[in-house]
Prior knowledge:
5-stranded parallel β-sheet
Amino acid sequence: xxxxANYSIWEGVYYHPHLFGVIMLTAALLGFSTSYLSxxxxxxxxxxxxxxxxxLQKQKSGKKRIRVYMDGCFDLMHYGHANALRQAxxxxxxxxxxxxxxxxxxxxxxxxxxxxxERLALVSGLKWVDxxxxxxxxxxxxxxxxxxxxxxxxxxxIHGDDxxxxxxxxxxxxxxxxxxxxxxxxxxxxxxSTDIVGRILASMEDKQVNGECNGLSASLESNLKSKxxxxxxxxxxxxxxxxxxxxxxxxxxVVYIDGGFDLFHAxxxxxxxxxxxxxxxxLVGIYTDQTVSQQRGALFPLMHLHERSLxxxxxxxxxxxxxxxxxxxxxxxxTTFNISLVVHGTVSEVNYSPNAKEDPYRxxxxxxxxxxxxSPKNITTTSVAxxxxxxxxxxxxxNAKKEASEKKYYEERKYISGD
Length: 419
């Protein structure tokens, strides 16, 4: 007999509590009654199992949490970035994100569109991100890699399956691969920052900042818009992956905010954060492409409805979205979604006038549940587009080079399996 196994005596029968616990758990999973098994000679009753179950719970909770790291510029944040970070989080328990510094981006790619502060707000606002490291290096040097492993307790470094080459042509993740601490995720097809810059450059061509076209014919507008048309093919599975999958509690205070949310930026993140603090559940209405075009001009939105919806869904402050929300908020809509408060920011690009007869917020105002919310930032989709317009020659040259490499990637790629 193995006395180190801590045998106990019950009705004259020796048994091993750990082994017995496994038997009883297996029986429960198979649908057998534990009371039935307890009645069999040699099988103790449930109270004898509790210490084993407690130890099992301790072992489960005491398991080392896997920390994974992913870095990037995250300039012009889009749902492709969000999906990459979602996949990265799935490979561990805690996701740490490195945001490349402005100086490093300038040195390796040219000027970023968004500042470090804006990119930090965007990345920190994603529901899958646990920690951020600002001003991360563009290339993972041996010193920085050791910092990740020793100071930040990173177990694996993550990147997409598309090549990431340094200016000298070397693999930016070669060191992580060499030490066996590298894992790979699938690139999100149909979107890239290069593509979005292309859409903006096309939409800003011969166009005034206020959205009025300078003699552009409808056919030319159509050509400009289709030149960099989205290749994203939305699926129900992708929406489910981004969704929280939970509705509001019966007595929850539901806050509603709507908008185009085109070219999702730091201003959007901050207003959504403030709106969420006013209740228990934040419902966001995303206008249709047609509504955005009617309000902002034929060249907008820059990103179509499903792209914009995924960007909003990825935000940690958002609980649910209405994909294709109506322009006017009706009494029926308020009742259907049990909305307690409707809010609207002070910074907006839609042609909304508080005193207009067709005021879309007329009903919630009449019910006393409307509130104007001070927008924390003045950044807008147009102001971001203007930055690209101001440096259009630099971005055109960079895009031409990137478009060539992306074309090569798409020509050579094979079947992309699901992530």
